[in-house]
Amino acid sequence: MKKRTAAILFFIALFVLQGTAQIRLPALIRDSMILQRDANVNIWGWASPGEKIIIAFNHKKILARADAGGQWKTNLPATPAGGPYTILFTGKNTIELHDVLFGDVWFCSGQSNMVHQMNIHDVRYANEIATANYPQIRQFWVPNKSNVQGPQQDLAYGSWQPAVGDKVRPFSAVAYFFAKKIYDELHVPIGIINASVGGTPIEAWTSEEGLKDFSAINAVMQKNKDTMYIKTAMSTITAPQRYTDEGMVNEPKWYDNNFQPVHWKNINIPGYWEDQGIKDLDGIVWYRREVNIPAAMEGKPATIFLGRIVDADELYINGQKAGTTTYQYPQRRYKIAAGILKAGKNIFVIRVTNYAGKGGFVPDKPYCVFAGNDTVDLKGTWQYKVGAVFVPQRFNGGGFSMQSQPTALYNAMVAPCINYTIKGFCWYQGEANTGKPREYAQLQPALINDWRNKWQQGVLPFLYIQLPGFMEYNYLPSESNWAMLREAQLSTLSVPNTAMVVAIDAGEWNDIHPDNKKIVGDRLALPALSLAYGKKIEYSGPLYDTAVINGNIIRISFTHAVNGLMTSDGISPAEFAIAGADKRFVWAKTKIEGNTVLVWSDAVQHPQYVRYAWADDPVNPNLYNREGLPASPFQTGK
Q1: CATH code of the domain in which 344 resides
Q2: Contacts of residue 194, Cβ cutoff 8 Å, sequence gap at least 6
Q3: Residue 412, SS3?
Q4: Is 272 exposed, middle or buried (0-12, 13-18, 19+ CB in 10 A)?
């Protein structure tokens, strides 16, 4: 009787579903999308089980039928670059898509340096934003989601946006300049699907099948399939610490113009407070200064440049809140309405919150007030007072990050895209894996093979960016996890149809998100033009090939140096270190001969090993090929 009742309920449910379900398209299949030219393009969606869908496109009709689960998939015929087209879907309901172009589609992914939008770099690229008029360059921004339970079928939302005027602001800066250079060369529509999340490791972007050969990661994946374990892990994340900020407790508050500071001490901006007499403080520090504004600035809108602050800040001017940022990485550029600044004395107060590491104002960034044609410098001596001190926390199993778990971002942000026909991949990631650089040499090839297997479009071009320089300069040869990860990235070139962009010269010692994104995007377009489009151009900087020992000299040969080598500053190649069998490296003397570099040192009579630019942030990596592309860091031997 129970079985009969269950069967009846099943057929009732199926009948209701068939009667009410309608054609539904995935988030990627939208108005203004760019579809891959010259290829049979996948089109898919959902409908009632068994429902017939008629797709009218370019004077053709294509038939699809939903399976028992309500899913359907078909292809549009290969179409040359162009448009706009209209696509009409007819079933129980009708959907009409407009302004569809055919061109080339690139799937761009990684962590924060692929995330960073034009808007974040709007001072450097103000002119590019103001003049952006590329309606045939379009971006689909994949919403940030994570899931460890399995691949998801669709994205939560999304739309295709053109690179026109202010609409270019949300574009990934690297992806925009990449697309722009290709468009300027080929004049075909370029689509960017951007699936990127800051601070995430490569294993989060790889599928379960792609990680099958990594036993330790597999153990984590199996554990994460237990929903009770995930619930418990999430519950152990340390709650925000309760504290009392003295600057916000009493009246007048410390940002108020009526407040009179007593026992405030001097401190400099820029600079970290741990470097200025405050020992190991995590907490809240208030900064205060009287700033004289010239009469020419009064009544004008202004921009306050506050460099980069670790971690969060609130800016007050003359008692009014003028800006706030809750995390450390974006440079502070606060727009100030006309009327807030006045001629003469203005009270600037900055409330800085730091959770870990050094707190304060990052050096070597802009700190000023800009209005009209006038600038007032904000660097120099301020007054400070500590508003709150955070008690060091003990993490009892806390710190669980869902988006950093193996497969979490693949499942939620990549899997829903794999039906979309594309031209190739662009990848900018690695910072989050520098703690285990040797593992990356296996993880990156695993991701490449995994994605190619999932897309089922053959050996698609996979272009990736090597980590730029970052962190303090070290003027002695040293060990470096960042250098080791760059070596792992270099070794990935053994995977067919891949190319690596060298960005060692495009970093900033004090910012993991360097401001110069255009040089990276432009360089990324070069291997695309070569590998994907067949252009006969040099697309890579010099790459280490062989090392030949002759007495006390080692001759290093390079690929991608057919026309010879040069240095960016006209002096001998720097950042070369040499060692004997003991691997005690010392700085070397160098000389360029054609496409080779001779390396030696009077202190090493029997050399065995050479390193180039082997540091977190090498001081002067000046070796280039004649096409002006920088050489990759490397080491000979192991």
Answers
A1: 2.60.120.260
A2: 108, 109, 114, 115, 139, 140, 141, 142, 172, 175
A3: helix
A4: middle
Q: Is residue 355 part of a domain?
A: yes
The pTM for the full model equals: 0.87
Sequence-ordered list of residues with C-beta below 8 angstroms from that of 552, at least 6 positions apart, any chain: 600, 601, 604, 605, 606, 607
Q: What number of residues does the chain have?
A: 638
Shared-domain flag, residues 257 and 126:
no
β-pairing, 94-110 vs 190-196, is parallel
Tracing tokens 């992914």 back to the chain, one arrives at 109
- Token duo for residue 335: 């727009």
34 shares its domain with 156: yes
Task: Walk across the sheet containing 609-612 and list its strands.
Answer: 586-587, 576-579, 609-612, 634-635
186 & 252 share domain: no
Q: Is residue 372 part of a domain?
A: yes
Q: What is the CATH number of the domain that holds 126?
A: 2.60.40.10
494, part of any domain: no
Lowest model confidence (mean pLDDT) among 13-27, 121-135, 382-396, 442-456: 13-27
Residues 56 and 159 in one domain: yes
CB 184 within 8 A of CB 132: no
Q: Average pLDDT in the 317-334 region? A: 89
Per-residue pLDDT band for 234 (boundaries 50, 70, 90) equals confident
Within a domain: 445: no
Q: Specify whether 16 is located in the same domain as 136.
A: yes
Domain count, the chain: 3
Rounded to whole angstroms, how far apart are CA atoms 257 and 277? 27
Which residues constitute the domain of residue 575? Answer: 543-635
Distance CA 402, CA 406 (A): 9
- Looking at 193, 215, 234, the residue that finishes a domain is 193
pLDDT tens per residue, range 164-186: 999 999 999 999 999 999 999 99
- Among 389, 420, 443, the domain boundary falls at 389
Residue 268, burial from CB neighbour count under 10 angstroms (0-12, 13-18, 19+): middle
Q: For strand 60-65 and strand 380-389, is the pairing parallel, antiparallel, or unpaired? A: unpaired
Tokens of 258: 């009526």
Verify that 29 and 127 share a domain, yes or no.
yes
Check: CB of residue 241 under 8 Å from CB of residue 393.
yes
Q: From CA 269, how far away is CA 286, in angstroms rounded?
A: 12
DSSP 242-260: P---HHHHSSS-TTSTT--
Q: DSSP characters for 94-146?
A: EEEEEEEEEEEEEEEEESHHHH-BGGGGTTTTHHHHHH-EEEEEEEEE-----
